Input
Amino acid sequence: MIRTRRAAAAGPVRTRKRGRRSPLASVALVAVGLLLTGGAYTLFTASSGASAAIDLNSAQAISQGKKLFQANCATCHGLALQGTVAGPSLIGVGAAAVDFQVGTGRMPLAQDAPQAQDKPPVFDDTQTKELAAYVASVAPGPGLPSSKYLQLSGNATRGAELFRINCAMCHNVAGAGGALTEGKYAPNLNGVTPAHIYEAMLTGPQNMPVFNDANISPQDKADIITALKATQQNANVGGFDLGSLGPVAEGLFLWIFGLGAIVAFTVWLTAKAN
Amino acid sequence: MTTTSEPLAYDRTEPADARRSSGGLTGWASNYLDERTGISYVVREFGRKIFPDHWSFMLGEVALYSFVIILLSGTFLTFFFQASMAEVVYNGSYVPLKGLDMSAAMQSTLNISFEVRGGLLMRQVHHWAALLFVASIGLHMVRIFFTGAFRKPRELNWLIGFVLFVLAMGEGFTGYSLPDDLLSGNGLRIIAGMVEGIPFVGSWLEWFIFGGQFPGTSIVGRLYTLHILLLPAAVLALIGLHLVFVVVHKHTQFAGPGRTNDNVIGYPILPVYAAKAGGFFFIVFGVVMLMATFFAINPIWTYGPYDPSPVSAGTQPDWYIGFADGALRLVPHGWEFVLFNTTYSLNVLVPVVGLGAFLGAVAVYPFLESWVTGDKREHHVSDRPRNMPTRTGIGAAGLTVYAVLWAAAGSDLIATHFKFSIEGVITTLQFALVVGPFIAYFVAKRVCLALQKKDREVALHGFESGRIVRLPGGEYIEVHEQVDDFERWRLVSFNDYEPLMIRPNAAGRIPPQERVRAVLSRWFFEDRIEPVTRTDVELSSHH
Output
């Protein structure tokens, strides 16, 4: 911008020559700038997702996490993570559990309900990781997943089969969620990040069983995540998926909109001309 | 043809040639056809058939048209579907299933969806039209029931329609099971369990049906034969019979000026009704097409191939089998017991028998009602539901039973989507199943009686005009205006029934079934509003 203005001041002939070049140059400049910013952003987000942004072992992260924990979590979980009547002990739950519970907004709990619900998280990613660092520093537990399992590069066919056998009875075959006893439920998996899915399998939050690495290997977990994302991307092959809820949604749609439209047509066809 | 008429026929050929020039190709062609088939008789007779106009009279047509759509799309699907449970490896274009073992049925259904041009659209057209078929039959039946259009002489046609409804459910369920995906396999497993629940013969019957242990390798082939051969043939034959009866009986009509038990007022088939009905076919086709284009149904690629071990959350049958699924879900805990080494699964048996009884009651209702009312007359004028309060109440109760069972099939989704506990939903629905029909019966009956009272009031004293007049004495009155004769006709013309009197028969005895009949008759007609007579109207118009 400044350069063009300066060029304009330099003279009409030069302006035309440089004026020809300068739009291209500025476009290129913008492109390079965007590429750099985007690239840096991608690098940054990818690395933060892979837990490398914050060193979980650094004393600073741990002490920051401790402060956050004491201010926000200790009321229920106890100052030494030992648990109280209001909340379970967190000794040995590991960084993965903290990242899942806090990262999906389930913790801190909003209300006393059959099950913690996911909601917009209270803490940002850095704070979540600091909390995880602190909890992991007190006693060892399952750590954050390695980024190589979160690349959606696993075997979708095998993952889908594993999902059907291990997960679909609660989460529904399309990951649309399902009911459990006494008001509890298996949540909808649509839109959950790969890291959170991995951590949920690893730590078994709420009523979910633990699928540890001996049960479902990390590669199997990566396959499941790949399949889940592939299914969700392919969900609308046949049109709007009506929530992937199966025949109940289809039946309701047919009665309300299908038959509803047709009844409206019958009324129109038999209406008397006024 | 007699010999005397032959010269006549011969004579006609001469002017026919003359007409050929004046009437054009159409005239010549219709004459050609008529001389060889005598079709003009059919056109004259059938073309002058009268159909009364009311929106609810078109619901049966919707069922007919959706069946035509099902036949057309289904034929397309048979070109590509392989009804075999032979194990193959999927190598089609849907990546998340690539390399997986599955049955040829599942593979060919996936190929229809992803490889055959227009295949997915046809699958979705077929499935949406199937849902619409059963739904429109249901709504059609409800209309027939509440307007009393099943009364003499139409009881047999009600029965045919009922069998069609059951066949349609059978068609739907066999079709649902064909792709051999996870959802359909889960559905079959439930049916297998229901069969097993039958005492003594259950296990044998299951092995007989599945050709061995569930799931076996023959069930898809067997269901396919039923789905594309036996059931459609039966449906088609019964639809034909159903329509013949409609022609023979003529269509019912609602009470209105000039409409009696001996005539039919409406439009003739040709040209008005045929044009309307033909256009309506394309409207139904269009609605189904739009649904199939924009809304996915039964995405089997998401469900994956059937494997007896996984059962997905939210596994439900298509809506028309929902009431059976719901009945199973509502059985209280612990209804299964072992006696002398035999397990008695009352938890399965009671719903199966209960559903059978419910459907049986629907089938025999016309005969039951005519026995109770003792009404052997022919009826061609439909009732307004309010004018038969007890029947309407019974219908409301029946619909409540159906609706509760239906809702129970979606109990898990009700729980997750409205944030209830599933136990709470089940308990509520169990309660509603027992108490709901009674509440529905009394409310519907009272509403009917109240509406009848209002009709009587309007017929006798007119309607409130909203015009307030102050009389010279200071009194305020609201002016009531008399309804016109056309409107009054609708209000006053309905049958009046009275409870039957028990009378001894020729032998001087009162048989027990007559006592039952009298009790039922009293229940039917105890609370009633008599129709306004001409005298009543004349008397009321004088003051």
In short: Chain B has a mean pLDDT of 89. Chain B has three domains: 1-37, 47-51+59-304+321-383, 450-542. Strands of chain B lie at 50-51, 87-89, 101-103, 253-254, 267-268, 336-339, 342-345, 381-382, 463-470, 476-481.
